[in-house]
Write a structure and sequence with these properties.
single chain; 617 residues; alpha+beta; Immunoglobulin-like; Beta-galactosidase, Chain A, domain 5; 38 strands
């Protein structure tokens, strides 16, 4: 049997995280927004987008995407991700501004906030945005003049930075110049943001819709769907109110050694596992009417290196902070884990979620569909144990996913949405616990005779990779979704897509024409306060919205995100369709599509199948 390198998914976790974040940004954010701009007459930056994907494809080369290369090569990989991020974010900002400034808003005040929804279904919920405001208390109004609650998370005076750099093109225009300017990070409640569209809210400086964060004495987070109790050891007990099920001992962090290298994780022959619950955390809980936040801080003490681990010595600090966020009305909990990893070598950190559901298979998504994998490969493991010399690698059940992994029965389930390293393993005596890898570190490109992979080294054993120890501040985000029914009725695939596709916001005010946003001339206000390009019923899961490669129209791709079910869908456009075709992945026509009242009925798709539609307006 060949070597599979099942744990290469977590090699250079920092670069894997960049890959996940960058792919999500390009596919879920940039391309739908540029497509929306194209529908409003903006030029789609074809060559720039091709350059972005060329850089991503260079990073997708076999060893580059695996990170099983030298530190020097990994530096090149990082630089390409940085270039992609910089180019893409500037394209997004430019397009956001070109649309937002064309909106004719009769409610327009001194400051507007335009929210863009890149998804094919209407979106609601609490989002976090950064904006510049002249005071702490103000009102946010939706397009109908209704008050929108907001909460301030961060608030910093940047008056001199902003106002000393102002540029005014039209000196005859009477513009609002505030006395003070604060950079604020706020959370606010969005209501019915149109699909593949936008809505413009306004800031009214004479009203006040602030709901403040207040520190709580009880260590509980709660909304309409969930109640989270923070235990004294920092683990979470989570009550799903809809099924009256309590999931105990959630989000335990587990640290252990990594005697592997750039191709493989492998435990040391003398390992020492350490869990966060062995330490006394500092817990702080704050809440407002729309958001509840817990900060759990540990000072974990772990072995400095593999030598100390083998001797059972715990001498070195590993400070860890877990931020838990529960928004109003949501069944998804957002987590941010920050680790100061400057002093520890060759180890791994994972997060454990006990589903309490004894499982034979896990369900995860792959390209264009779902896959169920055995939680343990029993026959292969028995053969491994009986004669390891005949195997090139232990038949591990460490697996990967695109955007989620879940354990469920017919009544309930837990899904984890990794937003960095997309590696998991189902563990526990009953195989009832999802173990999500956050990061792992090592010091060599290759090593010989690993516990999980005997024999020759897979990489160059003389090439040291000290940067792979990731001696720096690390931060990883992921979400946990607690749902009712099975993976189909719980709409796990669509929920993962939403979790990885946050609405965009663009703030406009004349006083921001400075080094914050480049100065532009006035444009014609020819767009509505709220608009949508198209919507679907949400049966199929959205894959991409983009311009066609060789034709002037737009590509919309959807896939079946259920297990076994056959699904269809309907795409309802707000613009007049002049052409509609069924195309393949090469975007070559494979069939005609009938259009009724600018609506397309999408053909039924079986399990793990997808459909690609080409349209012109």
């Amino acid at each position: 049997l060949m070597r599979i390198h099942k744990s290469i998914f977590s090699s250079r976790s920092d670069l894997k995280q960049l890959n996940t974040e960058t792919q999500n940004y390009l596919i879920n954010t940039m391309e739908p927004l540029l497509s929306l701009g194209m529908a409003y007459g903006l030029k789609y930056p074809v060559e720039t987008v091709r350059e972005i994907w060329r850089l991503m494809f260079e990073n997708a080369a076999h060893d580059s995407i695996g990170a099983c290369v030298s530190d020097t090569t990994n530096e090149d990989v990082y630089m390409r991700y940085k270039q992609v991020r910089d180019i893409a974010s500037n394209l997004v900002e430019l397009t956001l501004r070109e649309i937002a400034t064309r909106i004719g808003n009769p409610q327009s005040k001194e400051i507007s906030l335009t929210f863009f929804n890149p998804l094919s279904t209407v979106q609601n919920g609490v989002v976090e945005v950064e904006c510049y405001v002249p005071q702490k208390e103000f009102g946010i109004l939706d397009e109908q003049g209704n008050e929108i609650a907001y909460t301030i998370l961060e608030f910093v005076d940047q008056t001199e930075y902003v106002l000393n750099q102002g540029n005014i093109l039209d000196l005859s225009k009477d513009i609002f110049i505030p006395n003070k300017v604060y950079k604020a990070k706020i959370a606010l409640q969005l209501n019915d943001v149109p699909s593949v569209g936008y809505v413009q809210y306004t800031i009214d400086l004479h009203r006040n819709t602030l709901t403040e964060l207040i520190e709580q004495k009880r260590e509980i987070l709660e909304n309409e769907a969930l109640q989270i109790t923070i235990n004294d050891n920092g683990s979470l007990d989570i009550l799903d109110k809809k099924t009256a099920t309590t999931y105990r001992n959630q989000t335990i962090l587990e640290e252990n050694g990594d005697d592997g290298h750039s191709f493989n994780y492998s435990p040391p022959r003398n390992d020492l596992k350490i869990q966060s619950i062995e330490f006394k955390p500092v817990i702080k809980v704050v809440n407002s009417a729309i958001l509840e936040v817990a900060t759990i801080t540990y000072e974990m003490i772990v072995p400095k290196d593999l030598e100390e681990r083998a001797e059972g010595i715990q001498s070195t600090r590993l400070p860890v902070t877990i931020v838990v966020k529960l928004a109003k009305g949501q069944s998804t909990i957002d987590f941010e884990v920050a680790i100061d990893n400057r002093w520890v070598d060759s180890h791994r950190l994972c997060a454990l979620f006990d589903a309490g559901i004894a499982s034979k298979v896990s369900t995860a998504d792959q390209q264009f569909g779902l896959i169920q994998r055995p939680v343990v490969r029993r026959s292969e493991m028995d053969l491994w144990q009986s004669d390891q010399e005949k195997w090139n690698e232990k038949p591990l059940s460490i697996e990967t996913c695109q955007s989620f992994v879940t354990l469920n029965d017919a009544q309930k389930g837990i899904a984890i949405f990794p937003k960095g390293v997309r590696e998991y393993e189902i563990v526990g005596e009953k195989y009832d616990t999802i173990r999500l890898t956050l990061f792992r570190t090592y010091g060599y490109m290759g090593k010989e005779n690993l516990v999980y992979r005997p024999g020759r080294a897979s990489g160059e054993s003389v090439v040291k990779t000290p940067n792979s120890q990731c001696h720096k501040q690390l931060k990883f985000s992921f979400s946990a979704y607690y749902y009712q029914g099975n993976v189909n009725s719980g709409e796990v695939a669509n929920s993962a897509k939403i979790a990885n596709t946050r609405p965009l916001v663009y703030e406009y005010a004349d006083f921001l024409n400075s080094r914050l946003i480049f100065t532009q001339s006035e444009v014609q206000k020819d767009l509505f306060v709220s608009d949508s390009l198209f919507k679907t019923n949400g049966h199929l899961t959205l894959s991409v919205i983009k311009k066609a490669e060789e034709r002037p129209g737009m590509i919309v791709r959807l896939y079946n995100g259920h297990v076994d079910d056959e699904l269809d869908d309907t795409i309802m456009f707000e613009k007049t369709i002049t052409k509609a075709k069924l195309v393949d992945l090469k975007e070559e026509t494979i069939g005609a599509l009938e259009v009724y009242s600018n609506t397309i009925k999408v053909p039924t798709q079986k399990h793990a199948k997808f459909v690609t539609v080409y349209v012109e307006f």
